[in-house]
Write a structure and sequence with these properties.
37% helix, 6-stranded antiparallel beta sheet, 156 residues, alpha+beta, Chemotaxis protein chec, globular, single chain
């Protein structure tokens, strides 16, 4: 039987953004007030792979406004450089993935989280994680939105 992890990952992501970046989720009525849902840009994505007790990866694709806000809020600066933005996004991805992989670890086995990185512009992440289960969530925050994809090998 397959387990769906999206609700748990959504909660982990919201908690991480709130504690780490001082960002809060938007309610449906708030989305209507700002003119509908925002969309991730797809320009800068972070990737974190994991293996050991479970094999897979996580990809975070933020909107441009969220990427700016993550770096500004984490670093306490008004104008973050592209390098700052990428570093902050990788750190958020690392925290969210680190809190997610225990969901996959059975019998207290260990999952090893690989260093987060920024995906190459033309990289096909579906091919990278080919043959794995793919679940996707979207988080809408007061500073922007992000799509979070989790890829993992289902238990036999």
């Amino acid at each position: 039987m397959s387990i769906i992890y999206t609700d748990k990952i959504h909660d982990i992501a919201l908690n991480t953004f709130e504690i780490t970046c001082y960002m809060f989720p938007l309610e449906d009525w708030e989305l209507e007030d700002i003119g509908g849902e925002q969309e991730p840009s797809g320009v800068t994505k972070s990737v974190v792979a994991f293996d050991g007790a479970a094999e897979g990866g996580m990809v975070i694709n933020p909107s441009d406004t969220l990427l700016d806000a993550i770096a500004s809020n984490m670093l306490g600066v008004d104008e973050a450089t592209q390098e700052d933005k990428e570093g902050a996004l990788c750190e958020i991805a690392n925290i969210i993935c680190g809190n997610t992989v225990p969901l996959f670890a059975k019998d207290d086995n260990i999952c090893v989280i690989r260093p987060p990185r920024i995906a190459d512009k033309n990289e096909d992440l579906n091919t990278l994680f080919g043959g794995m289960v793919h679940e996707q969530i979207k988080v809408n925050l007061d500073e922007g939105c992000a799509e979070i994809s989790i890829y993992y090998k289902a238990e036999a």
